[in-house]
Amino acid sequence: GIIVRYSTSLPDNKNYDATVPLKRILDTGSRIVLLMGLRAVAENVLRQATKMGVFGTSTVWIVPDGFADRPPPDDIRASLRGLLGVVPAVQNIKQQQQGQGQGQGEQQGGSYYT
Description:
This protein is of the alpha/beta class. It contains five helices and five strands.
């Protein structure tokens, strides 16, 4: 079954200090983290998570299409192992119609793989 070990709401602030919620995630031993929010907020949280060592071989992060619709910033890309971004098929189809490629680090089959 699924057990939600921790849930919180973060402010819509790209400069928010997410240290406390990230520490709580570490303390609970959660293996799956669902991060919903605007891209700027998600990037900030992911940067902080990277610095704190929250990413690892036993953790999967799921992010929405607002973050996954394009590759993550270079400064955090290499550390985002275990990141899964879901992109609606309609958006993926539109990008294919506009001639955008499907290279490494880009959308593949509606998801973002790192």
